[in-house]
Design a protein that fits this description.
CATH class: Mainly Beta
Structural class: alpha+beta
CATH superfamily: q2cbj1_9rhob like domain
CATH topology: Jelly Rolls
Radius of gyration: 19 Å
Order of helices and strands: HEHEHEEEEEEEHHH
CATH architecture: Sandwich
Strand content: 15-25%
Number of domains: 1
Largest sheet: 6 strands, antiparallel
Distance between the termini: 30 Å
Number of helices: 6
Helix content: 10-25%
Length: 269
């Protein structure tokens, strides 16, 4: 337990200083292989085609709302090597904001620089309200489109100009590693100059008092959410933040999944 606490503290220090960290070799090979198989299957079943805009890319395949598409994806938001770091950046009341795959194909250009919280109308810099992660299902290299970052930019008082030329660094990492970053960090997908896809899963979180990027409550059938472990049910929004935000008639939404669930409201404290 002590080693785990030290590791989390190290990653939190890195995020505070540089805006990001890499949790090396966090994911086991069996899960990585299974996730790649699932993504290949879904691409065929859902008829996924490359995106058609500058931001998402023209040679990039994306699959959204992954929690609705199989058991393996449910392991991602609650992974013990990653979630404690995210909770340290936000807090335990954080939510799943979105869960999607990003496969950058050969010939794709670099994505415009952006900050993941730039649509949130708060003056910068501000405490983290978004904390996002990228799971490397394949190796991430500078040549194949590793996510590029501007270290320390999470402390800037403005968002990046996507048309300007700004020096970036590639977050190269081995397959199975996970990039974790502050939502204000300037970053973007890299250009893929190889003949193979760079495949990652974007597991994004937000503070419990923010609206999620993907509408988890409408995008996931309640019957499906009822099969999730308790922590994942809370993460997709079936909980109450600080005993107040998200309640239904002074009751936790968890009671919609399990009527015996009890949750104290802030007034009862």
């Amino acid at each position: 337990m002590a080693d785990h606490t030290v590791a989390v503290a190290h990653h939190l220090d890195r995020i505070a200083d540089r805006g990001y960290t890499i949790v090396e070799n966090a994911i086991d090979t069996d899960l990585l292989d299974g996730l790649l198989e699932d993504l290949d299957r879904l691409e065929l079943e859902l008829g996924i085609e490359p995106c058609t805009n500058r931001f998402e890319g023209h040679r990039t395949w994306r699959i959204y709302n992954l929690l609705a598409h199989g058991e393996r994806f449910r392991q991602i938001p609650v992974h013990p090597a990653v979630l404690p770091v995210v909770e340290g950046v936000l807090d335990r009341g954080c939510l799943v904001s979105s869960l999607s795959s990003i496969a950058i194909g050969p010939g794709e250009r670099a994505q415009p620089l952006h900050a993941d919280d730039q649509l949130i109308p708060l003056p910068k810099p501000h405490p983290a309200v978004v904390c996002n992660t990228m799971w490397a299902l394949t190796e991430f290299t500078e040549a194949n489109g590793a996510t590029r970052v501007v270290p320390g930019s999470h402390r800037a008082d403005h968002d990046p100009d996507p048309s300007s030329t700004i020096a970036t660094e590639p977050t190269e990492m081995a397959r199975g590693s996970v990039l974790v970053w502050h939502g204000s960090l300037w970053h973007g997908g890299g250009a893929n100059r190889t003949d193979r896809r760079r495949v990652g899963i974007a597991m994004n979180y937000c503070a419990g008092y923010l609206r999620q990027q993907e509408n988890q409550q409408l995008g996931l059938d309640r019957e499906l959410v009822a099969t999730f472990p308790r922590r994942l049910q809370e993460l997709v929004g079936y909980g109450v933040y600080h005993g107040l935000i998200g309640h239904i008639d002074k009751r936790s939404p968890l009671e919609m999944l399990a009527p015996s669930t009890e949750h104290r409201m802030v007034w009862d404290a």
